Fold 3-deoxy-8-phosphooctulonate synthase.
Amino acid sequence: MELSKIKNLKNLDANNFFLLAGPCAIEGEEMALRIAEKVVEITNKLKIPYVFKGSFKKANRSRIDSFTGIGNEKALKILRKVGETFEVPTVTDIHENDDAAMAAEYVDILQIPAFLVRQTDLVVAAAKTGKTVNLKKGQFMSPEAMQHAVRKVKDSGSDLAMITDRGTMFGYQDMIVDFRGIPTMKEYATTVLDVTHSLQQPNQTSGVTGGRPDMIETIARAGVVTGVDGLFMETHFDPANAKSDGANMLDLQYLEKLLSNLVSIRQTVNSL
């Protein structure tokens, strides 16, 4: 997929990886704009193509009392405001067929969650909106299996598909990234590494997913060296009090240093 087809995606001439980053969930307008403003500042400085990420609702929760959102339309309007305010593309995940057309009115990229990437009707509904479709690799799927998800998008009349690896289940409470899968998936579509979700530790007895944010730079560095087209990271200015996935998010204050290091690695890789 040609990244130039994504509206308002800037800095494409820098030959950098592109970045999908933002909070796990849209908790309110002020927090979304605050995070977006900071990430836009950093990515423009480092010449990184940037897409703002935020979930308008959270359907996959461990417990019934977990945060699910502030209301679909309210959150989607915030995503649109972020896009218009900072002139950046936006991405959100969808969970039901009807979500596709609804979310497509507000965002530029529709993301299929890893647990749902085999749901044919959902993938087709996303593809038929004409928006770019980000297919998260199922934690239970091989890299080779993702060619079939990409084919569903293409058979629906769209060439706007990309794949995001978010790790593979290792036992019951850990994730691993098999970096051998990156070049394999790049044969099928533009490929992204979801750094923060790859460090989740699910199935905790508390019903709240854990994580290893201390390993974010390690996984991200390895992804850049392996040649991923893009990186995906969830970030928040107060991860400890984030309403979703705080245990594996990157504290926003560390983002610039991390990205600066990764850009240096990318430049070295490009020179080889």
